[in-house]
Amino acid sequence: MPELPEVETTCRGIEPHVTGALIDEVIVRRSDLRQPVSKNLGEIEGRRFTAVWRRSKYLLLAIDDGRTLLVHLGMSGNLRVLAPSAAWKVHDHLGITLDNGKQLRFHDPRRFGVVLLVTGDPLAHPLLKNLGPEPLSGVFTAACLQAACAKRSAAIKLVIMDAKVVVGVGNIYASEALFRAGILPCTSAKRVSKPRLARLVESIRAVLADAIADGGTTLRDFLNSDGQPGYFKQRLFVYERKGQPCRICGTVIGYAQLGQRSAYWCPKCQK
Asked: Rounded to two decimals, what is the model's pTM?
């Protein structure tokens, strides 16, 4: 599933091609995604994109009439910039042709994505209004995380994956951040000291920044906006490395199901 670094990579990839471009045509080939594509999406023809930004794992494309195109890539989707003449793939469900000779193409094999035309403040939309702070922002601090953990017995890995606590820390990056911070994923959140939480905050920032710099993580079928894969997978320390030696100490990487999600850790490096 595309996580925050993949979505940020996509945002940065499409932004220079989309911002300021006039929308010539909207082509919807299939509308039955996780939520149906907005029926009035054709109304943006003749309008202009004014900005592209990201909130959590959502892409927001601002339009000059005050509305916003809200896009989620789902489980396996991608948003690419192509020539309008490029052949359509089976799972290319939507295209937006621009006046600069390019087309924004939405591809989603599992149809878990979202493409909605939102009126008013997009941050007030039900999909966004209850989200926690951005992990790379100054709002996400050790004190913030400590407050979220104070009364929670749940495993620390599950807490940092809670989008109401902090957004965008999916399974891959939670595993890697906990490894860098030296914290076992199953540790009760309320038992993690503030100094260790401070180290975890910095580790979350670092692992996400590294993944963004590497263009996201390709595990199965994610492609960024120009069709190229991310390469962060080559630098993973624990995720999907069950039974392999730790890259730091050589201890065999552990594995368990934690809250119906896979958990990976080094028994020696993490306590």
From this structure: 0.89
